[in-house]
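Entry type: protein chain
Record version: 2
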Amino acid sequence: MNRILVPVDNGEASKNAVRYAARLASDLEKDIILINAYQVPISYTEVPLVTVSLDQIEEVSKELLEKYKKEIQSLSSNACKVYTESVYGDIEYEIKKTIEKTNPYIIVIGTAGRSGLGNFFLGSTSIKIIKETKTPVLVVPPTLEYKKFDNIGLTTDFQDVIENTSTRLINDFIRKFGAKLSVIHVDYERYHFTANTPMETMHLDNLLTEMNPTYHYIENKDTIDGIIDCITKNQIDLLVVYPKKHTWFEQIFERSITRQIIHTSIQPVLCLRN
């Protein structure tokens, strides 16, 4: 678990994710694995024709990875080793194979911006990675520059806390960066309060006790608005979420398309599974 996995292509989101991962890896004293999966593009006319050869596509992939490798080494002052994997096949399948083979510390993926809206969305590959792997995934917004984490925000709904809350990586970040932890719970007129809530609150407090968290209980009808407001007021620079089911996951990421989380930039989001 000494490596950061970064899936890449030639898009702007990947370029920014590579720069972000380089600086993060340097601070965490981790190495980086870059993976690029390629396929042969097909031109569909009356008869499908391969427009370029497999060897040409492979060469382009290797050149891209070498370019990123040199940039990472420059940004990290050669502090971290960079491994590259140019593979032919489906990107989702190849990423799963790499995860199984290398057991990465964390996966860093970039989000693609939508021109004119000042926001972001996740592609289908990124969503599947987050949903299907237990490896922590750090989602880096477009154009966001890396900075050390000073205040980490952890979202909770106080449901099945023990089963769903992973704390290892949060602990690592707090120790490494000297960050503080802010726990965020959004409700409205105790709508989500149940008979189990007091016990679940106690469970979470026990899990986090060594991190000395500050709790923020936000009264807001809209969960997203409440989280955004708390992030802004408390200058939280990393948001931790625990995706549980598609509807809630979709709410967190898709509804964020219509707004920016903090002023003119969106903070990185760390997706954890227990």
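Comment: The CA atoms of residues 242 and 272 lie 5 Å apart.
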